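STRUCTURE:
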């Protein structure tokens, strides 16, 4: 019977947030099945929170060497993924991206053009080589006269698996969005996801969890029957909140009374975006303060395992806003973590 704090500490252990590890950046991205990377900085913060002595140039080198890629995928947002996951996950989440596309106003002027035609034209153009998003839109507008380039570029982004090429996303380097198809970039075809294997990997990194939790993580629906079909190979975990969660045998657990050191995470770390019920990582008040009007008003401060504030990097310093008074010991530990992040961002 797991309590809220048991679930919290177990999730933090599987996320390598109870204590840092010496694993590589690529291995961590693989274990976590991607890192949220809508902006440049969050994946670096995610890795620094989990890996001891993390060097941001390691992630940059992996992106430049195609050991990792930046791709629109889970929840319709940019993630840093391993090549294997990039080639499998995008096709799996495509129906969810398609549903979201119906409510996107940017692509509205292009909705009379058959999607298959835009996809074919995009692939044909990118077979010539990578292309900035502005140029891609303009070339598509030449193929479909009278349709705004921005609308066609948005359709291409939504319907074709496009990698954001370096220097986009590299450490302390700037660069516009230049696209290439994931197949051309990696020189390998997309593949069908091993869904049962993906369920096991999700539970290993985010469990114990429910099918609804995995849907919140991915935006892919109708996962209940998949979980039900795997009952013979999964554990069913009873929890104090009345929910029954699934888990993989042999996954590590943690007690609710184990210490959880403070962590400064990015604005959209998957830690708290990967469950339908997030009460084991933040309460409703913290969620509202983090979300604000449009979501993600700041980066997240975690103290004692739960979201306890926001932080911003301004003028070479970390600025904090905590949601509750901190004990003297919590403040001292948080100050150490702030110094660590300042050292990272000042490099």
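SEQUENCE:
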């Amino acid at each position: 019977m797991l309590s809220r704090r048991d679930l919290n500490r177990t999730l933090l252990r599987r996320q390598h947030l109870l204590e840092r590890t010496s694993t590589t950046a690529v291995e961590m991205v693989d274990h976590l099945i991607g890192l949220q990377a809508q902006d440049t900085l969050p994946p670096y913060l995610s890795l620094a929170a989990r890996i001891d002595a993390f060097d941001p140039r390691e992630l940059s080198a992996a992106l430049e060497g195609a050991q990792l890629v930046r791709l629109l995928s889970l929840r319709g947002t940019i993630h840093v993924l391993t090549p294997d996951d990039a080639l499998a996950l995008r096709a799996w989440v495509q129906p969810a991206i398609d549903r979201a596309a119906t409510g996107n106003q940017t692509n509205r002027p292009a909705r009379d053009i058959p999607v298959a035609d835009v996809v074919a034209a995009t692939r044909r153009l990118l077979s010539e080589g990578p292309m900035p998003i502005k140029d891609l839109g303009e070339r598509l507008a030449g193929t479909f006269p009278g349709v705004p380039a921005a609308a066609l570029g948005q359709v291409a982004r939504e319907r074709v698996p496009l990698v954001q090429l370096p220097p986009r996303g590299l450490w302390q380097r700037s660069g516009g969005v230049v696209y290439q198809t994931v197949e051309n970039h990696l020189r390998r075809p997309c593949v069908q996801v091993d869904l049962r294997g993906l369920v096991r990997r999700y539970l290993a990194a985010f469990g114990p969890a429910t099918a609804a939790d995995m849907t919140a993580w991915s935006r892919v629906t109708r996962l209940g029957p998949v979980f039900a079909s795997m009952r013979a190979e999964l554990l069913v975990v009873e929890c104090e909140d009345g929910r029954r969660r699934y888990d993989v045998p042999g996954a590590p657990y943690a007690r609710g009374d184990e210490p959880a050191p403070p962590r400064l995470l990015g604005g959209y770390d998957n830690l708290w975006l990967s469950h339908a019920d997030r009460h084991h990582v933040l309460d409703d008040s913290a969620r509202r303060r983090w979300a604000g009007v449009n979501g993600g008003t700041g980066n997240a401060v975690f103290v004692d395992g739960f979201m306890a504030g926001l932080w911003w990097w301004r003028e070479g310093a970390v600025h904090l806003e905590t949601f509750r008074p901190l004990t003297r010991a919590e403040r001292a530990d948080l100050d150490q973590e702030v110094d660590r992040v300042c050292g990272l961002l000042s490099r």
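REMARK: Residues 263-345 form one domain.
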